[in-house]
Amino acid sequence: MLSRQLALPRLAVRSIQTSAAANSGHHIEHWWGPEKAAGRELVGFGSNGDNTYQDRIDYWYPAIRFRKEDDVSRPLREKEKGDWKNLSLEDKKILYRYSFRQTLSEFEAPRGYWKPITAGVMAIISLATFYAIFLHVYVYPPLPPTFQNEYKEAVIDKMLTLEKGQFLGPAAHFDYEKKQWK
Amino acid sequence: MSSVALRSLARGLAKTPAAASALAQNRAISTTTPVAAGHDDVMEKWPAEKFDKHFIDYFNRPEIDGWEVRKALTELHDFDVVPDPKVVEAALRAIRRVNDFSLAVRFLEAIKIKCGPPKAREIVYPWIIKEVRPLLDELGISTPEELGYDKPELYIPNPEWYWEHKWYKTYGMDKLPNFQI
């Protein structure tokens, strides 16, 4: 490469690139917009100019129509060019549904997915609890005797006898004159 | 960034020539990054009449096409603004001229969105409809309420969240071996 640059200096200039390509990371072969649109009419810009249908509350006008033109919609499109008073209520609803997927009230309606989601979360929590119980009963060794109350009380008795913990321990709360707790 | 600097420079030039040179020197080095570069709030600060006139003039252009109507509606939707009835009328007339009935209904729904919380929607939206009612009757546009769209008509399941096997049949979706156009 270096020899070629020395032999052909004009070409060498071309081989040195000092700036990043303007469209780096964006190559046209990855753009499937028209294929995804699949023949739907492109009517606007949408949110980012891609030929995709999205119902978004911040970009309320999608880039393409929701449905392709077919034998139902074609006569209505012709009728639409005339007076809209001639359109029946059914025609108007069909026209809307060919252009858009959801109405606003459908967009805002609760979808009920909290039920399966809650069920899933509860199932995972209960499985984990049962697994912990199983481990506790069948797998782990019994707790050491230092966890028993008798052992803990014996430790405190011993500390009182040895007068350990005068500042922060049990001896600080014990009155040695009257032989009782303060 | 540069456009903001230029604009303030131009403003400074308009005021006093003497101060302008000092201003230019001060602005030459910027040590902070402007918040939301590229999204200026110039139109946010316009007086209401100028803002409305901007959109009304755009909608009233005789050569406007469907793509441009949607562009204007999207931009109008972008602002924290409930469109004035005059703007709504201009938009509806533009929509009528490009022969897109569904867009008119969609735009009336967009007004509902811009009204904000339900209480404001109950008050503001009917008022705008009342103001533009003559035009709606003249053009034969039905409000979403007249089409029955104020209540959900269809349920649209999200297959990525939850999907029952029998719904393939319910919604008339045959399982295809591969993606087909």
Automatic annotation (TrEMBL), chain A:
Instruction: Cite the annotated pathway.
Output: Energy metabolism; oxidative phosphorylation
The UniProt keyword set, sorted, is: Membrane, Mitochondrion, Mitochondrion inner membrane, Oxidoreductase, Transit peptide, Transmembrane, Transmembrane helix
- Source domain of life is Eukaryota
Q: Where, by residue number, does the polypeptide cross the bilayer?
A: 117-139
Membrane topology label: Single-pass membrane protein
- Coarsely, its chief localization is mitochondrion
> Where can this protein be found?
Mitochondrion inner membrane
Q: Does the keyword Transit peptide apply?
A: yes
Please cite one Gene Ontology biological process associated with this protein: mitochondrial electron transport, cytochrome c to oxygen
Q: Which GO terms describe its molecular function?
A: oxidoreductase activity
Supply the SUPFAM superfamilies for this chain. Mitochondrial cytochrome c oxidase subunit IV (SSF81406)
Which Pfam families does this chain map to? COX4
Q: Which GO terms describe its cellular component?
A: mitochondrial inner membrane; respiratory chain complex IV
User: Which InterPro entries does this entry report, sorted A to Z?
Assistant: Cyt_c_oxidase_su4, Cyt_c_oxidase_su4_fam, Cyt_c_oxidase_su4_sf
Family assignment from sequence similarity: Belongs to the cytochrome c oxidase IV family.
Q: PANTHER family of this UniProt entry?
A: CYTOCHROME C OXIDASE SUBUNIT 4, CYTOCHROME C OXIDASE SUBUNIT IV
Listed under subunit, the entry gives:
Component of the cytochrome c oxidase (complex IV, CIV), a multisubunit enzyme composed of 14 subunits.
Q: What does this protein do?
A: Component of the cytochrome c oxidase, the last enzyme in the mitochondrial electron transport chain which drives oxidative phosphorylation.
> This protein is called what?
Cytochrome c oxidase subunit 4
Source organism of the structure: Diploscapter pachys
Q: What is the lineage of its organism?
A: Eukaryota, Metazoa, Ecdysozoa, Nematoda, Chromadorea
From TrEMBL, chain B:
Would you kindly state one Gene Ontology biological process term found in this protein's UniProt entry?
mitochondrial electron transport, cytochrome c to oxygen
Q: What GO molecular functions are on record for this protein?
A: metal ion binding
Cross-referenced SUPFAM superfamilies, in alphabetical order? Cytochrome c oxidase subunit E (SSF48479)
User: Sorted alphabetically, which InterPro entries does this protein's record hold?
Assistant: Cyt_c_oxidase_su5A/6, Cyt_c_oxidase_su5A/6_sf
* Keywords for this protein: Heme, Iron, Membrane, Metal-binding, Mitochondrion, Mitochondrion inner membrane, Transit peptide
Cellular localisation: Mitochondrion inner membrane
Query: Which Pfam families does the entry link to?
Result: COX5A (PF02284)
Q: How does it sit in the membrane?
A: Peripheral membrane protein
The entry's cellular-component GO terms read: mitochondrial inner membrane; respiratory chain complex IV
Copy the pathway line from the protein's UniProt record. Answer: Energy metabolism; oxidative phosphorylation
- What function does this protein fulfil? Component of the cytochrome c oxidase, the last enzyme in the mitochondrial electron transport chain which drives oxidative phosphorylation. The respiratory chain contains 3 multisubunit complexes succinate dehydrogenase (complex II, CII), ubiquinol-cytochrome c oxidoreductase (cytochrome b-c1 complex, complex III, CIII) and cytochrome c oxidase (complex IV, CIV), that cooperate to transfer electrons derived from NADH and succinate to molecular oxygen, creating an electrochemical gradient over the inner membrane that drives transmembrane transport and the ATP synthase.
PANTHER family reported in the protein's UniProt record: CYTOCHROME C OXIDASE POLYPEPTIDE (PTHR14200), CYTOCHROME C OXIDASE SUBUNIT 5A, MITOCHONDRIAL (PTHR14200:SF11)
What's the name of the protein? Cytochrome c oxidase subunit 5A, mitochondrial
